[in-house]
Write the structure tokens for this entry.
Amino acid sequence: MKRFTTALALLALAAAGSLDARTAPRVAAPDYAAFVADPARTADNRKLDEGRMPAAVLAFAGLHAGVTVADYQAGGGYYTELLSRAVGPKGRVYALVPPGGKPEAWAALVAAHPNVIPLITPAQGMTLAPGSVDAMFLHLVYHDLYFVSEKYAHPPMDIAATLKGWFAAVRPGGHVIIVDHAGPAGDPRAVVDKFHRIDPGQVKADMAAAGFILEAEADALRRPEDDHTKNVFDPAIRGKTDRFMLKFRRP
């Protein structure tokens, strides 16, 4: 695919001349609900809307026309498409995607949304150029930083180095938005291995250590009835887990 590239290509992007997010002009919030309601979205994505509440998530993220955002571990592009609409034709969405996805689905998404650039790279190589994005968006994937699996070719990641890279990539005043399955406290690798969840306190501690400031959190996706000691793929709770939303600012 001509529009596909590798994350290393981002290293060629010049950060010079980019807007400091702290001094960028204020822009009116988009109509996120209208993006979600657009009939052009696929039926498969629409089926996920009830549990994911994308309009609330996008409003919390606060992304608007003209900004550049990285959709980290973008999966099948559910949020990539919505982020593309939010940032508009003058914005840009880098979709960081592991190898082995669905090229035909991404081809269709890119054809419909020219401001999307998929970057195909293993999780360990998802590196962005310094000062290249206004925001990073992570949906149900932060916990995978702690995931280790020989079966899925996912060796241990250097989390401190990864977050240091995020800090460098996000422009001053920019944000990292994290949505994930809430999990119990404890050794994060053990928790992730068993439940595919993460303690929000662990995320806050990691991000603070990397230099980010917690700016906001929201409860729109919280489900207090969820049992945090159940694996998120358990059919009884799949798609209905207790989830947290955190927004961090790069000073």
